[in-house]
Amino acid sequence: MVAFHAFQFAGDAFWIGAAGVDVFFVISGFIIWTQVMRPDAAPGAFLWRRLTRVAPAYWLVTGLVAVVAGVWPRLMPEVTLSPTHLALSLAFIPHDDPLGRMFPVLAPGWTLTYEASFYLLAGVSLLAPAGARLGLVLGALATASLAGFVFTPLYELDFNPMLLQFAAGIWLAHRRTRGRDLPAGAGVVFGALGVAALAALWLTGVNDILFRPLFWGLPALMIVAGALALEPVRSLAPPRALIRLGDASYSVYLCHLPVITLVAAVARSWTGAMFPALAIACALAAGMAFRHVVETPLIAALRALPARAAPRRRAQLA
User: Fold this and answer.
1) Residue 300 domain-assigned?
2) Alpha carbon of residue 252 to chain centroid
């Protein structure tokens, strides 16, 4: 995603980088389903953890983007503001911006509208018996993915086949709970084929948004399945720097486009062909810093609130 947006300022040369969203959706399905099937999983605690993990940092960056765009509109010409647009963006509700584009104030946040819907569905599923959750969630995702074709206005409200990528991640998590991961050798093959498929689409220029869940979603599934198969191979453990970068992935996701846009406004005219590299480096550095200074302390403070509130409630009842 970072490279995709950096190269947008250089003629959209790396458009296949947008497939990082599809990989992320598959990973999200896997992680969330692993949490849903924990014996101690409960709807309230699950949704609170999801809310504190995603929303506050997103709200903060969205607010900063709105301030910069309002005060210095030339720095962020792609951001258009209105009270309704800002409110719907903060509420994770899909909508058109004032220019008719399907993007929130923080443009990459369109993916979070899908995530928020999926989190809500997963949280509600915890009200059902554990044995019924898989069928309920997969059935709901399949139904919602087709609903947009039956009633067209729903398509742009996330009722489309992009939701099936969460189902793919759920399927991988379900296989793991049954001890049916791919062997490491097959994981190498699956991962390589997934990368090769995306490379082939890029080189041939095949880019059909309607069939994105198939053209990009299937390779994304293969890449994630391959990575999961290689996870137990200790000799392939990534360097510590990459692990830290992975830990900061959400912060990088939030910060990268505003940072790239600002770097473009300041430096694109004199950096030339070096601009993508400079923009990527600045975006990664900003994301790492945001993770350390803002995201981690903010999540810790918010998640401590229920524990702090409990003694007060007991004291009031005493």
Assistant:
1) yes
2) 11
The tokens describing 192, both together, are 């390589």
Chain centroid to Cα 139, Å, comes to 22
Q: State whether residue 227 is helix, strand or coil.
A: helix
In a domain, 220, yes or no: no
3-state secondary structure 2-39: HHHHHHHCCCCCCHHHHHHHHHHHHHHHHHHHHHHCCC
Exposed/middle/buried for 14, CB within 10 Å: 0-12, 13-18, 19+? middle
User: How far is residue 59 from each of residues 64, 83, 90, 112, 198, measured CA to CA in Å?
Assistant: 9, 14, 6, 12, 32
Structural domain including 254 reads 238-304
pTM score, whole prediction: 0.93
Model confidence over 48-100: pLDDT tens digits? 999 999 999 999 999 999 999 999 988 888 899 999 999 999 999 999 999 99
Interatomic CA distance for residues 162 and 170, integer angstroms: 14
Block residue for tokens 């800002």:
86
Cβ atoms < 10 Å from Cβ of 85 = 20
Judge contact between 28 and 118, C-beta under 8 A: yes
| HSE value, Cβ hemisphere, 13 Å, CA-based, for 295 | 23
